[in-house]
Specification:
By secondary structure, the protein is an alpha+beta fold. The protein is about 25% helix and about 25% strand.
Amino acid sequence: MQQWISKIALALLLGCPALALAQKVPADSSSWPLPDSISQQFKNVDQPAEYPGGVEGWRRYMEANLQYPKKAVRRNTQGVARVQFLVDTLGRVSDVSIIDDPGDGLGEEAMRIIRESGRWIPAMRQGRKVRFRHIQAITFRLE
């Protein structure tokens, strides 16, 4: 299976800005709920949430942990899975959901890899940690 992982094109849009929204949060409450209204969320942050180690850390994590689903290998399924998730003010990942799923387990694997990624470095806005809604694209390609 390690052989398949090395053949996965990890075009993760790492060098490109990801779609993201952040929200101002009281400093003493990491479990403060997000409002339904997008107008109450920031569209820009000074520093988006990022995986520890930045782009290189994320690449290493993906190479070590991503598993191409067997069903997708058998059916030669490829494509881009887009996953949306929240990074809170403590760097915890939650509210993971799939936006685009190429099928045959690729979307589920993209969600699993995000859920198990551990703590992130929280987003910052005006010197304060803020909640950050992130959309990550993961390209699955067999070669």
